[in-house]
Design a protein that fits this description.
With about 200 residues, the protein is of the alpha+beta class. The chain has a single domain, classed as Distorted Sandwich (Coagulation Factor XIII, Chain A, domain 1). Helices cover about 15% and strands about 35% of the residues. It contains two helices and nine strands, in the order αβαββββββββ. Strands 2, 3, 5, 6, 8 and 9 form a six-stranded mixed beta sheet that branches. The chain has a three-stranded antiparallel beta sheet with strand order 1-4-7. A hairpin with a 4-residue loop joins strand 8 and strand 9. The longest helix has 20 residues, at about 1-20. The radius of gyration is 19 Å and the shape is globular.
Amino acid sequence: MRKRHLAGAAAAAIALPLVLALPAQSHGYINLPPSRSALCGAGGVSWDCGDIQWEPQSVEGPKGFPSRGPADGAICAGGDARWAPLDDPHNGAWPTTRVTAGQQLTFTWYIEARHSTTNFKYYLTKPGYDASQPITRASLDLTPFLTVPYNGRQPDATTTHTATLPSGRTGHQVVVAVWDIADTGNAFYSCTDVQF
């Protein structure tokens, strides 16, 4: 009897680290143009991204943005301290995608867990945004430049949305995309750095 308990305890001791090492249930992120999560997942930056490099699809936080949701300065990480490296502006050194005001830009989401969806919304930092500072509501135009309603439908595994970029921006700006889930209290957050 004692040998059976010891064997069971040994098996549990071995299994526990394996279970803890498995990634959390995955969801989705913008991979084109590359979001901060995508860049970290692909090793596209010179600094340590922490655990997000293994789980770029997992930036989930409370929904209701901008009136609720993650706190200022923690928006790109969805308010989750595990992904805090996404909120570090690195003095404006995040790689950017070159864009032009008024151009059509397609955002491509890579979605591993297709949730019933309320909508996708896209926000852009205001003119004069300082890329060396974390993203706050005060730094964003809180009227989305694109809203894509889903009315409870599930998005495809590869989902694209095309938007016309607002005018009046120059230099390094950040797009904050929010994927609102219909049947939970959460949303997924994805920040993409662009250069006008």
